[in-house]
């Protein structure tokens, strides 16, 4: 069976200063980059909060840390990011959906400017439905920054997606959506909703729920529509 794979990292929080929330986020991301250089994968996806304060300099530092990555990199913004500055370092070909084998990964911008929590407006939800309907891929995975479910931890769910029911109303219209993944919560978790696998990616900087270490998610995508996730910790 032919398989494809991609790696998701999230919430690197690179800043002009090295220390962010008491950790060296630049060194931590560099360590993760060294880890994934030994892995066999097709695409790297970064699911938001690439920078801590959204400065152009922080994205330049981030891009330099990512220089050893030889695969295509796709990114989506988080609430800490500045989309204008982010777009200067990662062009529009990186801020988009991507095809990987018989799958398409659709990226969704869930950011509300000036707010920690996320939301999808009616236009975005309609666009998402259209993208899924028109996709040539056999299977679909969705990725956004904000969690669309309760994290069932000390995480404050009020900082998550404000209207998850609207997102799932779109998802429930299709039977080829196999997974939803996100970041933001700095937590490794896996859930299941009506046969759709739900994955929370841990942070490369630090975790919020008492999990120690830094990590990334490595997804294997099968031709039969199965998706598997292995979290690698450092």
Automatic annotation (TrEMBL):
* UniProt keyword annotation of Metal-binding present: yes
Gene3D superfamilies the UniProt entry points to: 3.60.21.10
Q: Where is the Calcineurin-like phosphoesterase domain?
A: 6-188
- What GO terms are given for molecular function? hydrolase activity; metal ion binding
Keywords in alphabetical order, please.
Answer: Hydrolase, Iron, Metal-binding
Tell me yes or no: is Iron among this UniProt entry's keywords: yes
Pfam families linked to this entry: Metallophos
Q: Which family does it belong to?
A: Belongs to the cyclic nucleotide phosphodiesterase class-III family.
The name this protein carries in UniProt is Calcineurin-like phosphoesterase domain-containing protein
Which organism was this protein described from?
Answer: marine metagenome
Traced from the root, the source organism's taxonomic lineage reads:
unclassified sequences, metagenomes, ecological metagenomes
């Amino acid at each position: 069976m032919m398989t494809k794979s991609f790696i998701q990292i999230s919430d690197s929080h690179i800043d002009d200063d090295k220390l962010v929330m008491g950790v060296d986020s630049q060194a931590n991301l560099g360590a993760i980059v060294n880890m994934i250089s030994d892995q066999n994968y097709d695409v790297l996806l970064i699911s938001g909060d690439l920078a801590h304060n959204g400065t152009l300099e922080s994205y330049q530092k981030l891009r330099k840390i990512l220089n050893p990555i030889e695969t295509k990199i796709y990114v989506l913004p988080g609430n800490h990011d500045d989309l204008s500055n982010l777009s200067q370092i990662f062009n529009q070909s990186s801020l988009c959906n991507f095809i990987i084998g018989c799958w398409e990964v659709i990226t969704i911008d869930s950011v509300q400017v000036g707010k920690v929590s996320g939301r999808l407006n009616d236009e975005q939800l309609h666009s998402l439905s259209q993208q899924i309907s028109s996709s040539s891929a056999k299977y679909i995975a969705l990725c956004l920054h904000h969690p669309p479910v309760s994290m069932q931890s000390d995480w404050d769910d009020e900082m998550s997606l404000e209207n998850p029911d609207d997102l799932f109303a779109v998802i429930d219209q299709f039977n080829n959506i196999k997974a939803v993944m996100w970041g933001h919560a700095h937590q490794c978790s896996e859930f299941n909703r009506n046969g759709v696998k739900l994955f929370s990616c841990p942070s490369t900087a630090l975790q919020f729920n008492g999990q120690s270490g830094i990590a990334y998610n490595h997804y294997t995508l099968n031709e039969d529509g199965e998706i598997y996730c292995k979290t690698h910790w450092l």
